[in-house]
Structures are given as structure tokens and as C-alpha cells.
Amino acid sequence: MDVTVAEYIRRTVLKIPRDEIKTMLQKWGFLSETQLQTVNFHQIKENISQDVVQLCEENSADIKQAAALDIIYNHIYPNKRVWSVYQMNKTGEETEFFDLTDFKKKFKRRLRSALKNVTINFREYEDNAIWIRIAWGTPYTKPNQYKTSYVVYHSQTPYVFISVSVLKSNLPLLCQALVVASNYHDIREMELRSHSLNSLKDIVFKRYSQNFQTYYPRPLQEGNVAPESGDLRIIQENRNEKERIQRVNQEVFGDGPQPKLEFAQYKLETMFKSDPKMDVLDEKEPFRCLVKFSSPHLLESLKSLAPAGMADAPLSPLLTCIPQKARNYFKIREKKGFFPGSFVSP
Amino acid sequence: RGKMEEGKAYSPDGVFAHLEMLEARAHEAAVKQEEMEEQEEKLARLKARVQELRLQRDELRAKVDLQQKGQLGKEGVVSDPAQPSARAVLEWKIKSVKAMLQIFYLTGISGKLTKRGVCFCISTAYEGTYLDSYHLDLLTKAEVQIHRHSVPVFIPLEQIAKKYLQTDIRRFLSVLSDHLNAYAGRRYQADQLQDRFSDRIEGTLQRNSLCNLLVFNYNVSRKSKTFPFNVRLLYGDLCCSLPTEVTVSCTPDAPASLAETAAAHSDLFRRVALHKAFRSFSSAEGS
């Protein structure tokens, strides 16, 4: 077995939390059950990884199997990477049949024709997600297994989720290969980024809870309003307002959990509006300003702002449009004759 | 009479001819009489029938009147203690309206007017099983626009909207509903196959988001030996939940009789739902 492969497997195993190592190796399926039973999974990780490498040596693991283990790790812990969303376009109206074998063949051929030194591995999952792992080399050096990009693609959709690591220069090549393999014409990066891959999928696939008005009887929500029982001496003075806020919030955010985003960024290129008498800025130039909202769970925190009394309901549409517009990076420019700061560029 | 006298006055031949003529006339008259009598009988019968039906109608009318009066009586007379309260009546009305809306929902396409337009709900079903529902929030103030929706991204919504949304909204909904229902049906079949017949499938079932191309291997047993079959199902019509192209192939070293089986299976897949086809294989081989 190749020394680099052995080292790569060892380091991959070290990344896995100790309690999860056995399950992940079972999912990998490269080592037999009897082999796994010879490993003591209670010792320190350093020793576990050595034992695993030893077993892989017995089975003569190559880079393909090592890459498979890496994909499995990243599939279970996708939130360790930052994912960007790309959208593909096509003009034709033919029905797509999406043949997986065809896709893989075209992708590999396109990529390898431009750069021979790449390691490409695929893994398909039950939800029609195709995971592609690419380790990049250069025309003169072998692929570096520690400089990998991941692509997640759901067949017959125009969206691709890409987690690029250091080598951004390979991105155009990657995009080209994707477009060719999936029978689209072009691809562009969307203004949507997050650590949570599933939340990004929820947003573009419209799987998050949107509040549609229907007649179909849904179970009546009691809402977050505390039940009447309690100290009768306490009177809710602004119950009407509280209920209005609940209602508005529900209309805007829906009932279910929000997709998980870590930040929203607004780049302002608007004019500074001051009291004309003060005349702060002599030249009428746009006041460049960047506003960034950060949170472990941005949309849930926005949802709780009004009920917590920290903001008026309804919130600004600039904040609430994030899932529907499928973006969390905005550029706000001046719109002539309009309320300043309210024009959002497409 | 004039003729009779004439014939009598002249030749003996004339008498027979005359008699014949009289006979014929009498016969004609008798036939006519019979016809008339028949007509009169028929008329009488029909008149009697009309009377019968009128009587029935009056009876039914009386029944309906009685029912209506009975109900009105209950609502109108306030002092009657046995009649249900206004609240009970309201609840009954709400219940029947809800039932009506439920029926609309179960038909597959239902809608509700909103402040800015209308919100449609398309619910899918396959052979009696209700599956997912999808929503479309339309704006109708200026031109018709889709404000938001929950239609899966691999359904060609933009294409369908471009064709029909502005001109014929009924057709738009109908076509979209066909797409969604067919997709739901295809997915249901593929899921059923994976859930219930996983022991017959070798390796993985290759599918895609639209479930319009399925490729897999399954086992066919013949004389206590199992042979692998490979099948490729292509669903060319996105509004249809049965495949348009089926290719079933067996390995080259398989016995010749298996080719017939492959053809039979191929035909079955074209006509019958996937999981049902497998159920019939299992029952045929189990015997």
C-alpha cells in the first residue's frame, strides 16, 4: 500500500470522533466485520488509527477506497465546510433523463482533458444527491489529497453546492465540467453561502416551511402565547399587540424550523441622508457601508426579535426576504425618487 | 252506392267483380277500424301513465314540502324547546362547509383567494394513496405571476407557466397537476420497489430526481437456479407514471427460455405499476 494513502487514511480516522469511528468504518465497508472486531475502539485515537491503517494494509487499500472514506466523513459532517450555491442555466426544453453513468463519464472526461492530475470520486445517496470529491494536482505534480473540493449535485436540478478549499483557481474548470456533464449551458455563483448544507438545500429546493393560505384544515396552533392559567393578578396589558405580533410573525416566517444560516451581509451604496441644515458631507457621494448580521442561527433569531420586543413587527423585508430570494449577500443601491436604501440589486 | 247500382244493372261478370270490390272495401274498413282502435287504446294507456306519474310527482312534492316545512318549523319557532340552538345550527353549517372544502381538497386542486391574488394547493395521489401536496401563491393584480411556491425544482414549472399561465390558468393548473401526480406516482412505485422487494434487487436501484429513468438488476429463478436480469425503464412522458421504453436483458449464458421470460417481463413493466409487476413475479414463482 502506498505510504501517502496510509497516511491519508490515518489522518482521516483521526478526524472522526472516537465514538463514531466504528460506525463510519462499517459504513465504509472496506474492512470486514471480523477485521473490525480485532480493533479496540476504546483506546486512544492515535492507536485506533494505527490499527486501522494496519488492517487497510492487509486489504491493500488504494486511493479510491481512501477517498470513499473521506466522502463518508464529509457527508456525515458537512457543516465543517462552507458551501456556496451555484445556479446553472439552459435554454432547451427537452425532457431530462439524467443517466448517472453518463454524467460521471462526461464529468471525468472533461476535467481530465484539462488537468490530468486529479483524483475524482463519486458517491450516490438515497436522496438523489451525488457527492463528488476532487483532489487537485498541477500539470507537474500529483493530486494533493489534502486540497480537495466537494460538489453535491441533485440530478435534474439547476443547483450545485460547492465547497472549494484553497485552490480557487480550479473553480472555472470545475464549473465547466459540471455544466458539460449535466447538459446545461452556463453556471453562475449565487449570493448564498452557509456552513449548513442541508439548509442551503432547503432554501433553493423550497423545502422550508412557507406559510401558504389554504382552506385545508391544519391543526390549530396555540402559538407561543403562554396559557391563561397562572397568577390571575397578572394582567396582560398589551395582549392584542402580542397576538398581532405572533400572527404577523407566523405569516412571514411560517410554522416550521427556519433554514440555518450564519450571516447576512448588506453592502450599502446609498447616499447619506442628514439634516439639510447640518450639511455634513460636502460632496454628494454614496456612503459606503457594510452591515453584517451574524448568528449561530440567523433566521431563528430574526424570527424571535419581534416577540422578544426588540424590534417592530413586521420586520424589514430586507431581512425577511432571505429564504425566498435565496440569498444572504445583498447590495443596496440608491433608487432615484424612492425611499433610500430600499432598492436591492438582483 | 252509385257504383253498386251500376254493376247490378249490367253483366253477370260485373256482379262478381262488384262483390270482390265490396269485400276489399269491407276489409279495408275493418283494418282501418282496427288501427283506430289500437290508437285509441294506446292513447288511453299513455293517458293513464301520465296520471300515474302526476300522482307520483305530487306525492314527492308533498314529501319535500313536508321536510322543508318541518325544518323551517324547527328554526322558525323559537319557543319550541326541542329545536337546536342557533349555535348548534352554526356549528352544523361550519361542519358542512368544512366537509365541502375537504372534498375540494381531495379532488386534487383547490384554491383560496388571498389579498393579492389566489393560493392554489395541488395534492397528489397514486392508486388511492394520498401523497404530498404542493402550493402556488399567485398574484393576479396586474398580470398573473407566481409569487411563491413549493413545487420541487426539477418539475419544469417555468416552462409550463410560460406556455399557459397568462392565457389559460385552468390548463396551467391541469398540466402542472398532471406533472406532479405522475412524478408522485413514479416515486411511489420506486419507493415501494425498494421497500418491499429489496431482496430481489441486486445492487443499487439507480434512479434520479424525477424518477424518470430507473436502472437495476433483479433475480429470476428457473429450476432452482437464479439468473440476473437487467432492466432499464425510461419514462419519456413526464405526465405519465408508466414507462415509455423498457429494456430487459439477461446474461449471454442464460438458457434460451429465459429470453421469452425477459420479453414477458418487459411487456408487463410497460403496462403495470412496478411494484405490482414484482408482486406478480413473486406469486408466479412462489407456486
UniProtKB/TrEMBL annotation, chain A:
<dbReference type="GO" id="GO:0007059">
    <property type="term" value="P:chromosome segregation"/>
</dbReference>
<keyword id="KW-0539">Nucleus</keyword>
<keyword id="KW-0137">Centromere</keyword>
<dbReference type="GO" id="GO:0034080">
    <property type="term" value="P:CENP-A containing chromatin assembly"/>
</dbReference>
<dbReference type="GO" id="GO:0005654">
    <property type="term" value="C:nucleoplasm"/>
</dbReference>
<dbReference type="InterPro" id="IPR007902">
    <property type="entry name" value="Chl4/mis15/CENP-N"/>
</dbReference>
<dbReference type="GO" id="GO:0000775">
    <property type="term" value="C:chromosome, centromeric region"/>
</dbReference>
<dbReference type="InterPro" id="IPR052011">
    <property type="entry name" value="CENP-NAC/CAD_complex"/>
</dbReference>
<comment type="similarity">
    <text>Belongs to the CENP-N/CHL4 family.</text>
</comment>
<protein>
    <submittedName>
        <fullName>Centromere protein N</fullName>
    </submittedName>
</protein>
<dbReference type="Pfam" id="PF05238">
    <property type="entry name" value="CENP-N"/>
</dbReference>
<keyword id="KW-0158">Chromosome</keyword>
From TrEMBL, chain B:
<keyword id="KW-0158">Chromosome</keyword>
<keyword id="KW-0175">Coiled coil</keyword>
<keyword id="KW-0539">Nucleus</keyword>
<dbReference type="InterPro" id="IPR018464">
    <property type="entry name" value="CENP-O"/>
</dbReference>
<dbReference type="GO" id="GO:0005634">
    <property type="term" value="C:nucleus"/>
</dbReference>
<comment type="similarity">
    <text>Belongs to the CENP-O/MCM21 family.</text>
</comment>
<protein>
    <recommendedName>
        <fullName>Centromere protein O</fullName>
    </recommendedName>
</protein>
<dbReference type="Pfam" id="PF09496">
    <property type="entry name" value="CENP-O"/>
</dbReference>
<feature type="coiled-coil region">
    <location>
        <begin position="19"/>
        <end position="70"/>
    </location>
</feature>
<dbReference type="GO" id="GO:0031511">
    <property type="term" value="C:Mis6-Sim4 complex"/>
</dbReference>
<keyword id="KW-0137">Centromere</keyword>
